[in-house]
What we know:
There is one protein chain. By secondary structure, this protein is mainly alpha-helical. It has a domain at about 45-195. It has 8 helices and 2 strands. The protein has helices at about 5-20, 25-35, 50-55, 55-90, 100-150, 165-170, 175-180, 190-210; strands spanning about 45-50, 155-160. The chain is elongated and about 90 Å long. The N and C termini lie far apart (about 70 Å). The relative contact order is 0.13. Residues about 1-30 and about 35 have low confidence and may be disordered.
Amino acid sequence: MNLPLTSLAVLALAVAANAAGVAQEPAAAAAAAPAVLSARPLKIGYLDLTRVLKDYHRRQDLEAEFRELGTSLTRDDQSRKAEIDKYDSEIEQLAMGTPERLALEDKRKAALKQIEESRRAAQQKIAQRYVTAINQLYDDIRGVVSELGKEGDFDLIIKDQSTEAQTAAVTDPALQISRQVVLYSRPEYDLTSVVTQRVNDRYAEQVKKSEPAKDPKKPADPPAKER
């Protein structure tokens, strides 16, 4: 436990006085005890980050975004492969060493180089977007945790490791137990649900603000017909 600086100073003076053989006055000794006993006990909260990330709507939207990016990259690869296959088909119909064949082979090499560069650039763009997304999730959660720490007067808020996540990643029961961060905790100090609710509320506000404003003059869409 970290004692306040004043309490540490009182303790240091008391130890120095005893070591030097100096007798403390009763009033001084009585003043030292309350300073130590009045130190506020630590208030520690915890949250299961696995659960927070699982239920965070921004993470779910980001996963959908990356799935679409992966699908788009696959479509581009298929289109590029079709282009190379076309060159291969045309080259096979020409005799070896002919000017026409050599010209097509050069075009194929140039197209293949361009395809590789384009794919590399696309992969790099996705990787950069992934890093940005991870940092965004981290900043969102850390910001909310910091606010809750100040609001609730917590000294520490620590990360609990989900038992489900450990089981999925580690099959050795002994290792699972050894990796458990929180072995006992009072339920009222579990901030998981509070953090999840708050990050989702803030994300919903951001999404709402980013949506284009509706034109009040534009007529509303007609109601859908019942099937």
